[in-house]
């Protein structure tokens, strides 16, 4: 496991080239993504900023195999070979389950489950039969590891209804990492949080990206969060522009600051 300060890998993980997407709006077609191209390396965070309705969340949906573009190439250069991220139906669900971690603004946690169970259930998606004992044991170990990574060690038996908004955001992030994704897609996960909690969650996104080596595409309206990325892109009217390297360079916040915000 790499240290959280490890620099991004030079190998491309996410490859997007010439992507276009249109929707029918009344009697006319409206272009949502217009000739979008982007590469994200392993262990790299690329922030996407821009006004509401500019196409940022649609870009994540395309990268996450949730929406299919009408033109272009969307691939994940996986350790197992290239993965087509324009797959549909059952093939798309399998790609998301095996390769992609999704973190949305609303955690949508399952109220009947404990914190630990929120994570473990991710390993059972798409299964008909229960997993063997060895896999169940590994899932429990993985859940414990991730809860510790996001500052929730010892809270696995808690119900999500007893958690603060910041703690639920941490569970949301840990759940997305449960199946060891090579691609992490993050859509405004801190929008409803106070400043200290938002900064703590952003710290964690930087930390886990470095530690687990995922390629991370991070949509945010917050300039301070965008500065934590390795690169910043701006989306305007469906077109993506490279703003350049972020001032923050993904530098980690101090352990003292993370500890102060952990209970939020």
TrEMBL record:
Keywords: ATP-binding, Nucleotide-binding. It comes from Corynebacterium xerosis. Residues 14-262 form the ABC transporter domain. It comes from the Bacteria. This is ATP-binding cassette domain-containing protein. Residues 244-264 are annotated as: Disordered. SUPFAM superfamilies: P-loop containing nucleoside triphosphate hydrolases (SSF52540). The keyword Nucleotide-binding applies. The keyword Coiled coil does not apply.
């Amino acid at each position: 496991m790499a240290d959280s300060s490890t620099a991004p890998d030079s190998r491309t993980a996410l490859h997007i080239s010439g992507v276009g997407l249109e929707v029918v709006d009344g009697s006319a077609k409206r272009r949502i993504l217009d000739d979008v191209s982007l590469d994200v390396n392993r262990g790299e965070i690329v922030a996407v900023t821009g006004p509401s309705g500019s196409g940022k969340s649609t870009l994540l949906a395309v990268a996450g195999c949730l929406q299919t573009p009408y033109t272009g190439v969307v691939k994940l250069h996986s350790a197992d070979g290239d993965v087509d991220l324009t797959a549909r139906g059952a093939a798309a669900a399998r790609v998301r389950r095996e390769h992609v971690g999704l973190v949305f603004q609303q955690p949508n946690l399952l109220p009947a489950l404990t914190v630990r169970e929120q994570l473990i259930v991710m390993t059972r998606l798409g299964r008909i039969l229960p997993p063997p004992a060895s896999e169940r044991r590994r899932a429990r170990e993985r859940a414990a590891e991730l809860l510790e990574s996001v500052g929730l060690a010892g809270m696995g038996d808690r119900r999500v209804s007893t958690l603060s908004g910041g703690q639920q955001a941490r569970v949301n992030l840990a759940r997305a990492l449960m199946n060891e994704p090579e691609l992490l897609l993050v859509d405004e996960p801190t929008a409803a949080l106070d400043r200290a909690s938002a900064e703590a969650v952003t710290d964690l996104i930087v930390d886990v990206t470095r530690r687990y080596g995922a390629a991370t595409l991070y949509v945010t309206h917050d300039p301070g969060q965008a500065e934590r990325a390795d690169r910043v892109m701006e989306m305007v009217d469906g077109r993506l522009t490279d703003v350049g390297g972020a001032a923050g360079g993904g530098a980690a916040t101090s352990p003292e600051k993370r500890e102060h915000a952990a209970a939020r």
